Amino acid sequence: METVKDADGKEWIGVFTSSEEMYKGSVGNVQMNQPTLSILRLALGWEQINGIVINPFGKYMQMTKKMIELLISGYEYYDNERKSKDDENN
To answer: Rounded to whole angstroms, how far apart are CA atoms 89 and 72?
Structure first.
């Protein structure tokens, strides 16, 4: 998986919302469809990167590892709550 660098030289995993966004920059032309949670967990485990950047060659959004941790925690909390409610209803 390729990374992109910001103006300070920090590396980020580039994530794109469409092929058009991907082709705006100079990254490889390989497309991989991955679940969002999978990409977020990959970013946390990849030591040399700072997080992910969505659509880095246009109007972008950066997510630091701290933001990713919070997002995953919230996802897991609500997923566990949903499963508990499903178990109660069965």
So the answer is: 26
